[in-house]
Amino acid sequence: MIEEKKITEVIIRSYSEKLLKHLENDVLIAGSGPSGLVAAYYLAKNGVKTAILEKKLSIGGGIWGGGMMFNSIVVQEEGKEILEEFGIPHQEVSPGYFVADAVLVATLLASRALLAGAVIFNGIYLEDVILKEGRVGGAVINWSAVEVAGLHVDPLTLHSRFLIDATGHDAEVVKVLQEKSKVKLKTPSGKMEGERSMWADKAENFVASNTREVFPGLIVAGMAANATFGGPRMGPIFGGMFLSGKRAAEIILEEIRG
Ligand code: 48H
User: What pTM, to 2 d.p., does this model score?
Assistant: First the structure.
């Protein structure tokens, strides 16, 4: 006989164990869009303890909508290696322009990251950072439903050696760090530079070279990197997001391995 009490107990026990296991992490990633998922995969695959915080219930960020809800993802030659690494079916529709199904991209990026050992806490958002002695040391978190309902509920914390801001256009982690603590960022002006209007080719190169540490312990990836360092947007082409996620993982792996 199936018991309601047992179902409840199993859920509470397993979730609490997962949360407790990830009280301390090597890496926390805010955002499960393409850059966050790719970063999580490469980190977890290399034995790095990694958890993603995702504000929404659904993972994947801007992947699902492709371009203007035409749910196809375009990837250029440079990003093809990621499609192949994740086993994502794709076609070269025009020389150098590969297309993949957005639903397969979202689901395969997420499942490969999870199977590699990363964990996703969905429905939880980063509302602040832990900032001690000039270094970011983790995330101040709360249920997204608390924010939506406007409830006055104090947050909890998850701790990490490195935090990746993969929250997309809004660069929410960098923004909260700048607004609350008035710190000097490693950007040309010392502040968030802001995203510029579309220039796909420039933006795709920009995102790879600006995936880097913006403050001790905090790395920016994906659109958050362009928003932080003043790069343009690129529209619905995703090779740069993938490669940025991989680069963020490489930066951290280099640091961890010394
Ligand atoms: C937890 C949060 C929080 C928070 C937000 O927007 P994303 O898909 O991010 P990227 O940078 O990996 O990919 C960008 C791409 O999707 C895109 O928008 C492109 C290429 N645009 C080009 C153009 O010209 O428009 O995903 C970010 C994720 C989302 O799932 C958010 O819900 C989540 O981050 N998020 N999660 N805590 N505070 N804020």
Answer: 0.99
Domain ranges of the chain: 12-62+117-257
Predicted confidence (pLDDT) per residue in 89-105, tens digit: 999 999 999 999 999 99
Assign 143 to helix, strand or coil: strand
For domain 12-62+117-257, say whether CATH 3.40.50.1700 is its number. Answer: no
| 179 contacts: CB under 8 Å, gap ≥ 6 | none
In angstroms, what is the span from residue 172 Cα to ligand 1's centroid?
A: 10
Position in ligand 1 atom list of the atom nearest CA 234: 24
* Residue to mutate (ligand 1; options 55, 76, 202, 206; most atoms within 8 A of CB): 55
24 pairs with which residues across the strands?
A: 159
- Closest residue to atom 17 of ligand 1, CA basis: 62
